[in-house]
């Protein structure tokens, strides 16, 4: 099970970076896993006057921790899409995109 979680962490990190890159006009992101399965997400925004502005993404951090806990609890073999969908919505909402707008963009292939 720990190998599954390690693979998931790596995959979610890569997906998160790619997804945020797409939605936030190429800002720089850092994701750090802590030993107690919490995660620290930091965004260095290129939209601000000061290019080194750090934005802590607390909502996303909580979403990822919840997903990892669910995996540890042995969820009924959810698909990757089922696992990542709430996460993608949380990312979009963190950057000002509503849930409805997210689904519209997904439907339109944006």
Structure description:
The chain has helices at 2-23, 58-72, 80-94, 99-108; strands at 28-33, 39-44, 54-56. Strand 1 (28-33) and strand 2 form a beta hairpin. The protein has 110 residues and is an alpha+beta fold. It is globular, with a radius of gyration of 14 Å. Mean pLDDT is 63; it is low at 49-53. The longest helix has 22 residues, at 2-23. A three-stranded antiparallel sheet has the order 1-2-3, covered by helices on one side. The protein is 56% helix and 14% strand. It has one domain. The chain is built from four helices and three strands; from the N terminus they run αβββααα. Helix 1 (2-23) runs antiparallel to helix 2, helix 1 crosses helix 3 and helix 2 (58-72) runs antiparallel to helix 3 (80-94). The chain starts with a helix and ends with a helix. The relative contact order is 0.15.
Number of strands: 3
- Major sheet attributes: 3 strands, antiparallel
Global shape: globular
Low-confidence stretches: 49-53
Q: Give the strand order of the largest sheet, numbering strands 1, 2, ... along the chain.
A: 1-2-3
What proportion of the residues form beta strands (DSSP E)? 5-15%
Mean pLDDT: 63
The secondary structure category is alpha+beta
Rg, Cα atoms, Å: 14 Å
Q: How far apart are the termini?
A: 34 Å
Elements, N to C (H/E): HEEEHHH
Number of helices: 4
Helix coverage percent of residues? Answer: 55-70%
The number of domains is 1
């Amino acid at each position: 099970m720990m190998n599954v979680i390690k693979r998931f962490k790596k995959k979610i990190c890569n997906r998160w970076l790619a997804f945020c890159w797409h939605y936030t006009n190429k800002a720089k992101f850092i994701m750090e896993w802590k030993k107690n399965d919490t995660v620290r997400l930091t965004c260095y925004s290129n939209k601000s006057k000061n290019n080194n502005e750090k934005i802590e993404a607390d909502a996303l951090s909580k979403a990822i921790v919840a997903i990892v806990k669910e995996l540890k609890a042995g969820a009924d073999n959810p698909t990757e899409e089922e696992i990542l969908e709430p996460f993608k919505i949380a990312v979009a909402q963190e950057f000002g995109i509503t849930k409805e707008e997210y689904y519209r963009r997904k439907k339109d292939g944006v």
